[in-house]
Amino acid sequence: AQSVTQPDIHITVSEGASLELRCNYSYGATPYLFWYVQSPGQGLQLLLKYFSGDTLVQGIKGFEAEFKRSQSSFNLRKPSVHWSDAAEYFCAGNNAGNMLTFGGGTRLMVKP
Amino acid sequence: GAGVSQTPSNKVTEKGKYVELRCDPISGHTALYWYRQSLGQGPEFLIYFQGTGAADDSGLPNDRFFAVRPEGSVSTLKIQRTERGDSAVYLCASSISGVPYNEQFFGPGTRLTVL
Fold first, then answer.
1. Which residues in chain A show pLDDT less than 70?
2. Buried b / exposed e across B30-55, counting CB within 10 Å, b at 16+?
3. Which positions in chain B touch A102 (Cβ < 8 Å)?
4. Would you call A14 exposed, middle or buried from its count of C-beta atoms within 10 A (0-12, 13-18, 19+)?
């Protein structure tokens, strides 16, 4: 079955520190992969997506993600976290169908 | 331009009642999706429309759930005989077409509480 797993439910980092959020996928073929952010009271916003080509993908708000086929991973990174990055982050996948399959989410807290 | 809008933002109902949740997609987007997000979980797919027709309704949990999009724009998710387990945030998304790698733009959701 197709699935997306985010192993970390909560992560706390200090402001200015680097960030890596983990995402693993299980699909028969390489899926399209997405990272979304959800802030309280707001809808899901797309940070970046991967569907082919370069395995390092740049997104909005200074985020990037690296697709690693050998590890079935698509981890999200940011070199320096800002307090405004505190939110819930969702990794999602989509193969030939149209529905997104989401991971359970990782809640990011930022310490001052 | 305007994003995806959903009404109402909150809906409280009693067990056994009927509810309708509305979604206004971005103008010109032919693909529309409904997801359900339970507390502490990621969104789960319910149904996908391409134009007026439901192209994939495999995520609807049972026959109490039904959705329509009669004119290919606004969609309504209908839940009959609501149960406490239906309590969740119902999210609507739209994309310019049904191509899998197109971005899905999400609305703010409708929080449904069944007492």
1. 96
2. bbbbbbbbeeeebbbbbbbbbeeebe
3. 35, 42-44
4. exposed
